[in-house]
Each structure stands twice: as structure tokens, then as C-alpha cells.
Amino acid sequence: MRYFSYTLLALLISTIGMAQKTCCNQANPLKTVIYSPELISDQLSPKVNEQSGMVWHKDLFWVINDSDCKPELLAYDMKGELKKNLSISNASNKDWEDLAEDENYIYIGDFGNNRGKRKDLRVLRVLKSAMETQTELEVDSITFAWSDQQNFENRNMKHDFDCEAFFAYGDSLYFFTKNWANKKTRLYSMSKLPGDYQLKPIAEFNVDFMVTGADITADGKTVALVGYKNYRTYMMLFTNIEGENFFSVNALRLDLESLGGAQTEGLVFTDKNELYINTEETKQPQAVYKVDWMKFLKTKK
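User: That's the sequence. What structure does it adopt?
Assistant: C-alpha cells below.
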């Protein structure tokens, strides 16, 4: 676990050879840096062709497949070789979208909501200790609703109450909405304990894309978001974080243009603070990539 404090590195074109452009309508316009992530593998098992979500556990990438696929947790290694396939026996996959973890649990986000009409949002909890000895697992659940959502009419991909990204930190789960209409994201938090919760928005940020994955470094100082807009992948890095308002800090936007039409889904920081993203099968094969995010930062002396 690292406890460094990071600041944004001055991005000099002449030094790192990356194009920049101004983006979004923030009070202080963001700089967008064009960056090409490293391909780790595009030879993944067809069993993860709709992979969505991503956590790093026991030196493996754990993923789920999204809506209406089998209720399974699958794991592959750095070479892309499938190593684990665990079934969930007491829950269906209505629209699983992301994974989160802490010391004791892996959390499955069953909150995909393309049409904007779901009233059964939930997070499933899987005991990590059971994953070591069982191939069929039982889960418990946490149910919730967005307290600020009033309209539940069918508005397929034309609303701002979808969600595909969350992570666990401290005693809470943190959610980032996928806003089809205004391309912003709202932040919510919720207890990790089973119950039924009404979530109030904490903050909003104009990322100018649709967020599909999120994670936080172990020291809580950096948050990364990934997603897409017009079939192009983008990432946000928020650094020097204090407290839970992750948006009131340094922010940098990356344009991962080399991914082309890939549909990016999951994102994870490993225990070594390495950052990876995954994509589901489209016209391009499902794949996993590495993002050298620390090249944009420096350690404060």
C-alpha cells in the first residue's frame, strides 16, 4: 500500500510528445491528453466476451458478464488464460455492470438501467473466504434507489439515471452514474451493510463521456473513471483527494483514441497501484489494457 501524495505533472508537449486540447465546460477547463494504453491481451476466453467490471484478487483479474448472462464470477491471469469460474446459486444476473472489493467481500453491482425504469437496484456481496473452497456461492444483497429520480418512464438511453461504476472504500460504496443525456456523472455513497437505502447525490462533474468503470487507489488519494462517447474511450484521473468529494481536486482527462471502437467496461488498480481497463467484444475482440497513469504525476518531495 502506498501513501504518497501526488500532484499533477506539468504536461510539456516537447517532453512527453503528447497532443493536448481543452475539454468540457468546467469553471477551469480541463486539459485532455491523447494517450495510447498498452495491450496486455486480446486473446481472452469467449466466456468473457461480455466482460463488465473488474477487480484484482489473488493475482487474477475477476470479471462478470453483463445483462442476462450467467450469474458467474470469472477470473483470468495476465496472459488472458481463464483460471476460475464460480457460479452464484441464489441470484440472477438482471444487469450486472461492475465489481468492487474490500478485505472480506467482492461486491457485484446489479444496477444497469439503460431504460431508466428500474426500481430494483441492488449490490450483491460474495464472501472472499467462500471463494477459496466453493465453486457455487451464495450472496446477500443491499438494495437502494436514487432519491432524486422522479421519472421512471421508459427512456432508453435518453436519461441520466443509469449506473455502471462503483468502488468500495472505507465503510462505504461509492457510485458514479452513467448519464446518457448530459454526459456528466453524479457521485453517491452507501453503507456496505445489508439494508435498503435512499441515496442522495454528493457531487456532479462534467466528464463529457458516459462512465462505465471506477476505482480508487488503496491510499484513497487517486480516483480513476473510464467510459466512452461516440465510440471513443476516455478516462478521468482525480488526484490529491481528501475526504469523499472526489471531484474537488486536481483532474486530468485522457483520450484513449488508439482503442478505436472498443467498448470499455471495467477498471482496476492492483495492489501495486498498476491501472488496467478491460473491453467487451464488439467488432474488436474482448481485451485488457494497462494504463501508465503515473507518468502524468510526480511524487511530492
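The chain has one domain: 6-299.
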